[in-house]
Amino acid sequence: MNSAGSLSMSEIDTLSFLYNSPSLSPSELAELIKIKGQSMSEVITRLETNKIVSKKKSQTDKRKFEVALTDQGRLLVEQTRYERDEWLSTAISTLLTEEEKNTLATAANILDKLSAFQ
Fold it and tell me: What angle do CA 91, 2, 90 make, to 5 degrees?
């Protein structure tokens, strides 16, 4: 089982967005993840209970708060990404033929090109 094995997809997505941003409001996270505000509140509560995220008062509006990764949360994301990369590397080297590895490399280049399209 990986480090994030007990997390839901919404929780994993939340951590991913927070990893790339210093902090986000619950409404920003809900919009990014495409879930309702109430569902996002539940996600944040669960992650905060597990000390993966923390809440702090918004600097611009003291009635609101922002969510950020804790040090433990940042380590969890990094460990999970490392485990995923190790699994994928092992699977590729173990299961694929040289021809399949070349096809995969070509497909990766094509996907990079598509992801850069604005």
Answer: 15
Residue where the block lists tokens 């699977």: 91
Residue pair 53/47 in contact (Cβ under 8 Å)? The answer is yes
Candidates 1, 31, 6, 2; CA nearest to 14 is 31
47: containing domain: 9-115
Q: What is the pTM of this model?
A: 0.77
CA gap 58, 98 in Å, rounded: 53
Q: Could you tell me if residue 66 is inside a domain?
A: yes
- Per-residue pLDDT tens digits for 66-78: 999 999 999 999 9
